[in-house]
Specification:
The protein is mainly alpha-helical. It has one domain. Helices cover about 50% and strands about 10% of the residues. It contains 3 helices and 2 strands; from the N terminus they run αβαβα. A two-stranded parallel ribbon has the order 1-2. The longest helix is centred in the C-terminal third of the chain and has 18 residues.
Length: about 70
């Protein structure tokens, strides 16, 4: 959340990507930072997945990530 908030603050659009394990933590960070950063959540866990499985997660999240980028 800090990285996306920083990027957005510098005019660089971004979207955070995290696993579903971090939904509550992301909400808490959004509130603490006072910034409603765009975040896309992918199925948890990630660390034990093969490269092909991670690519499939990325492919599945791609449209949501692009939709979350706000360019003003």
């Amino acid at each position: 959340m800090h990285d996306i908030t920083d990027l957005e603050g510098r005019g660089i659009p971004g979207v955070g990507v995290a696993s579903t394990e971090f939904v509550e933590a992301a909400a808490a960070q959004r509130q603490a930072l006072g910034y409603d950063a765009a975040v896309v959540f992918v199925p948890h866990p990630i660390q034990d997945r093969s490269d092909d499985e991670v690519r499939a997660l990325a492919d599945g999240a791609f449209d949501d990530i692009v939709a979350g980028i706000s360019v003003e």
